[in-house]
C-alpha cells in the first residue's frame, strides 16, 4: 500500500517515513501542500497523513480539495492545535482521524492500520484469499498451515494482489503502488518478484496458477473455491 506523508517538519517526516517503511508501506514525503497536490494527481494513494499547518496550501484546504475530487481513501490529520474547534474544522474538512502533536508513534501506527482496514478486503488482523492468510500485525504469511518466508517487497506485492483479488494489476500499476518515487524498479523486477512468489507459494502447497498472468495486461489471483 502507498502512503503520502505531507509534513513540513523534516525531522518528524523522516520519523514517520521510517516507521511506515518498516511496516512494508511505500511512502512518499513532501513538505508543502502544493507539491503534495501535484503528487496526488500523479499517483494512487491508499492513505494520506496530513499536517494541518503547511506552506502554500494548508491541510484543511488540501483535504477539502481531496474530498471535492471524490477521493475516498482515508486521511489522517496531524497538528499541534489541540482545541475542540480545531479538531472539528479538520474533521469537517474531510479528515477521517485526527492526532495532536506530540503523539505516541505506536498509537499513530495502530490508527493508520485501522483506517486502512476500512473498506478493504482485510480481516481484523490481515488478508485472506482461500487457504492463504496474511497477518498484517506480524507480516506472517501461511498457506493452509505452512508458513511462507517472504522478503518485505514480496509481502507487499502479495498483500496488494490479495487486496485486489480478481482485479488485474499491471506491472506499471504494481510499481506505482509498492515502490517509492526514489527507487522505481524496471518491469523486469516485478516479473522476478512474481516468479519468486509463485515458487514459494507452490512450495507451500498452492497451485501453480495461484497468481494468474493475464497476457498483455498483468496479474491477478486465481478464483477461490467460493468464487
Automatic annotation (TrEMBL):
Coiled-coil residue windows: none
Q: In this protein, which residues make up the domain named OmpR/PhoB-type?
A: 124-223
Looking up SMART domains in the UniProt record yields:
REC, Trans_reg_C
Q: What is this protein called?
A: DNA-binding response regulator
One GO BP annotation is: regulation of DNA-templated transcription
Q: Which residues carry this modification: 4-aspartylphosphate?
A: 51
One GO CC annotation: protein-DNA complex
Q: Does Phosphoprotein show up as a keyword for this record?
A: yes
